[in-house]
Amino acid sequence: MTSPLTTSxxxxxxxxxxxxxxxVLCAAMFxxxxxxxxxxxxxxxxxxxxxxxxxxxxxxVSGYILGYGGLLLLGGRTAxxxxxxxxxxxxxxxxxxxxxxxxxxxxxxxxxxxRFVKGLSAAFTAPAGLSIITTTFPEGPLRxxxxxxxxxxxxxxxxxxxxxxxLLTEASWRLTMLLPAPIALIxxxxxxxxxxxxxxxxxxxxxxxxxxxxxxxxxLLLVFTVVEAPQAGWASARTLTSFxxxxxxxxxxxxxxxxxxxxxxxLGVLRSGSQIRAQLGAMAFFGSYVxxxxxxxxxxxxxxGWSALHTALAFLPAGALVAVxxxxxxxxxxxxxxxxxxxxxxxxxxxxxxxxxxVSLHPGYAAAILPSMLLIGAACxxxxxxxxxxxxxxxxxxxxxxxxxxxxxxxxxxxxLFLAVVTxxxxxxxxxHASPQAVLDSYRPGLIVVTGIALAGLLITLPGLRTRRTGxxxxxxxxxxxxxxxxxxxxxx
Length: 493
What we know:
mainly alpha; Growth Hormone, Chain: A; 2 strands; disordered C terminus
């Protein structure tokens, strides 16, 4: 299916409506990232006001991650089958209502429930929004430009959330919950008018109900297990049993998908080395950054005594660099290709994380911290848009939602998994009643793990550099009738 807006974009000119469509989708992605980063700084105030224990308070964050990461696969395929516009707008409306309720509740369980619902709605808006872009803008320079702007909004939202949370929490933590509601409502009204109408997939072979149930259950259990593992213990019977159950569910899911006429995930998509590198790269990229931000935030506030706003401003150069480069990345991708940019970005991340190992209890910001922030900001500007472009290139329109959901799942699962690993490493090296210097020393193994994750992302990307960039070069399996064998088509990496 081709969007009616594609014609104007194919000539290189973006009409006002096309810009409006992109802005609506960017607003939703901006809100997703904004919501994730804003709540972190507000947690101490929330716990004090609602009398929540530390174990309960962490579910204000984990509840969102659970709903988001657990339902992305279902959200992506639902957008393909039921219509991307419809799914996006309904989920955006739910997000707005949940934001409003989250700012008004007066109990911990209700706040956690509202966060779970927000994560659930984001699990539908994220893949639907990305697939609307990839089916509206034709593959090539125009789509690359649109995706670079779109992914930049996510990074900008994450950075702005840190600053806004510091300001809003000074007045009331409830404002951090309420702020997304009016923005979501404005985007919803604009989306009703601007978003292109999309048809439901007509040629699908029914709904993969067993795959949806097993796939969603496996993702929910995986995210839940990873989030709870640091507290329960990685080697505890509870954690090991949960991971075993996840492995069983994933095995059943693969068997169901191989036999389904209309699978939730067509496994043939993963025959592409380019696709696999994009998915694993997304896990390494977001996992390393979330782990880094977690450690640096604690370092700045607990050891250096910086305020929430001061800490947020320290991260600001990275976000500002991403925002400034938003319109340039698409052209760079056109010239050099995604593998080169992803490799270059991961190399910058490795250097940026490694440089942060030099910090002390009395660092000079310009000399010790700013270089890492600038390198990491440049890396984010290169890696995140390129991963989105690489994952969605060469995929048929009717499967864009599926691939978008898969990519977002990789991002969220990578973030939850590696943050838990980094937390466990730091906790294991922190002695009781430690001096500030001993606490700082306990952070260094965590920073080494973060650097190692980024290095793994670089190594995963390197095989893609051998791919020739002449015309269309990466083989991606396409779907054919069930009785037929898979054929291959060449697509640009």
